[in-house]
Amino acid sequence: MTIKINRSIVVSATVLITGLLAGCSFSSDSLLPSLTGEDPSASNTQQAQASTPQRQTQPARTQRATQPPSMGTSKFEPTGVTSGSNTGTFVGQKAIELRNELRRLQSNVSKNNGALQSVRGKTVQDSQRYHGAVSAINARLQVGTTPGNPVLVEQFNQALSDLKKIGDDISDMNVLTTNVTADSTLAAFLAENTRAAFRLSGAIDEDHQQLAILEDEVNRTVVLIDRLLKELSEDIQRQTNYVATERSNLNTLSAAVKSGELMGSSLTNRALTAATAGTINRQTTPRSLVGRRPLVVIRFDRANVAYDQALYNAVSRSLDRRPNATFQLVAVAPASGGAARVALNSNKARRNAENVMRSLQRMGLPPQRIAVSAKTSQAAQSNEVHLYLN
To answer: Which numeric CATH code is attached to 9-21+266-389?
Structure first.
């Protein structure tokens, strides 16, 4: 399809896009498509989170590497439990029971700490292998290579596998979080029982002295578990965001491997040019559409037909002419078929527009540059999404 700036573009499109990492197999026919490569098929993925693809403006310039997020460095080793004597009282016996429970709890904390340090080390190793494979691909693409070079395909498969291993590491962290949460519940219960033991009758002074020491050690263990849980949660959040971003980056890299050269600049880079000049509009204000011709018309009249390529070309050329440009997405539903049918089509059209907006965000267009609206039309025969230049 030829894209012309002065004319409207009509594209039949599909809404359904499947996962980027649906499998680890990789051949010249299964390379993940990109905005500047071949037309994507129905197996492309829509990432809900916006990310900036790694692209290149000039062949002589290298791509900016994405560094893996830092992991926590704290170790969570309990200080141990102070021994006590059996005073022969009921309260003294209760103190012994609580002391044994605290020892079991601290044993669990030590075990979970060991598991955390192990998964951290594995994640670091997986990240290093992943970035090594990606760097090798970019270095080869930098100087030029053949389309679908088998060496780069193998390296891409390795990067894909290493990224999946990082995802598996996150799963291990989630399992560990469940175990630490259970320990946190037990620690809170133990702290409450220790405080309640002071209220029991029949205690001697030595019993309360031992309970006071025990209470301090329980409280320190509670704080230690809370810190472990907090740092573990932060590690999971950072790694999850990192993997989501790298999945999108691999989408662009796959197209570069297929074409044998680094891809063009991302929409984000062009938006940043306007931001540096201080001309970017922070909010997109919809304008009247009367008498205006859309840049792109996407008709959702059949499945499994891509629209990303035409959409990227139209927005890219618009940003070349107007770096501070903003855009309107209009969900258009047919106005025929009765009120129920119109309402159903309007909902579908709105979802289609939201999918197109997410595609633009994956291309690197900031969300504040996009406004979304909806309308019905007697002329529309199927659900459509129109893209206008503000």
So the answer is: 3.30.1330
pLDDT digits (tens, 9 = 90+) for 302-345: 876 568 778 878 888 898 888 888 999 999 999 988 888 888 88
H or E stretch at 297: strand 296-299
86-141 pLDDT, tens per residue?
888 999 999 999 999 999 999 999 999 999 999 999 999 999 999 999 889 988 88
Pairing between β-strand 370-377 and β-strand 327-334 as defined by DSSP bridges: parallel
Q: Which of 295, 313, 298, 327 is nearest to 363 (CA)?
A: 313
The structure's pTM equals 0.52
The amino acid sitting at 253 is L
- Report the C-alpha gap between 187 and 192 in whole angstroms: 9
- Pure H helices in the chain: 90-143, 150-197, 205-259, 267-277, 308-321, 338-362
DSSP 176-200: HHHHHHHHHHHHHHHHHHHHHHTT-
Query: Where are the chain's structural domains?
Result: 9-21+266-389, 90-259
